[in-house]
Amino acid sequence: MEPGADLAGEAAEQACKETGSDFARLSKKIVAAGLMRRRPWYYTLRIGVITGLFAAGWVAFALVGDSWWTLVVAVFLAVVFGQVALVAHDVGHRQVFRLRKASVRAGKIAGNLAIGMGYGWWQDKHSRHHANPNHEELDPDVIPDILVWTQGQARAAKGLPRFIGRSQAFLFFPLLTLEGFNLHVAGVRALANRSLKQRTSEGILLFTHFALYLGALFVVLPPGKAIAFLAVHQCLFGLYLGSIFAPNHKGMPTLSGNDRPDFLRRQVLTSRNVRGGWFTDIALGGLNYQIEHHLFPNMPSPQLREAQPIVRQHCEELGISYLETSLITSYSQALRSLHDAGAPIRESAATKADVETETETKADVKVDA
């Protein structure tokens, strides 16, 4: 598990080498349009602005001090943490720096130190997702953990996934409030994995974040307000992150076994774009162009909008379904898919209840007799 190893980009490059393939022809159009060029000034400005907002948030936290108004600062910092995570995402795909060492260094600063997310753990997980999106055995994002993503997973579910699965569509957004905590826990747990390279530096930066974060909260605020700040900040951070990633693949077709289409179809058919203007681009970090991002993970995010018409036309020429919806519709489709996935659990519970009722009725009749 090597931080900075962009398996997604390597998979795209390998697909490009398949001369004459549908993706290779698309790639030539994208390169000819100059859309794979670096954007150093864009990222200098973006990182500078986010760094300034990050610093301003903590200065505001110190100035507001022992007041319930500090919860407003918690909301602000939740959004800023989400934006830092999006920068770490772009760094991980080597959109910002060409060299791996620079990407790893920046990724660990943004991930481990700034927001308490294990960069090496996330990079490995996210790259495997990119290589096989929505594949039940190969994509870690659709392996059942707390939620089930298909009816097959629901039938095999036990324990917590089975308990939550029957109502998971209604619980999805509430559960996203725990995602920030999950990132911290997963990052710490990954440090025990010997395959994680640079474990020492990752661990030092990760625990430095925790020490500075918790230290600031409990030095500036009394315990009650510190815990309230932590809860509001981390829960909204998790909700924001989850809301960014939920529209991208949830509710799209899933793959299993040897069902692996070619690279172009594998990425397009399992991804969904979200319509919107500049505000959507900023809020979702360019991931609203999920199809283009999955096809060209190394493409700087501001160029994804320009790539979209080229990719859409190419897909239309090949008869490949290209889905783009509003943000609300994308959430609706994701929730509907979760509800459908949990159907076998609900049906099983209903059948069990019917059997119990029938048994009780027979017992009552026997007693009366």
TrEMBL record:
Query: What keywords does the record list, in alphabetical order?
Result: Membrane, Transmembrane, Transmembrane helix
Q: Which GO terms describe its molecular function?
A: oxidoreductase activity, acting on paired donors, with oxidation of a pair of donors resulting in the reduction of molecular oxygen to two molecules of water
Q: Where is the composition biased (Basic and acidic residues)?
A: 353-369
Region listing for Disordered, in residue ranges = 349-369
Q: What does the record list as GO biological process?
A: lipid biosynthetic process
Its transmembrane ranges are: 43-62, 68-91, 204-221, 227-246
Offer a single GO CC term for the protein.
Answer: membrane
The domain of life for this entry's organism is: Bacteria
Provide the Fatty acid desaturase domain boundaries: 67-324
Decide whether keyword Membrane is in the record: yes
Q: Could you confirm whether the keyword Lyase appears in this record?
A: no
InterPro entries for this protein: FA_desaturase_dom, Fatty_acid_desaturase
What name appears for this protein in its UniProt entry?
Delta fatty acid desaturase
| Lineage start | Bacteria, Bacillati, Actinomycetota, Actinomycetes, Kitasatosporales
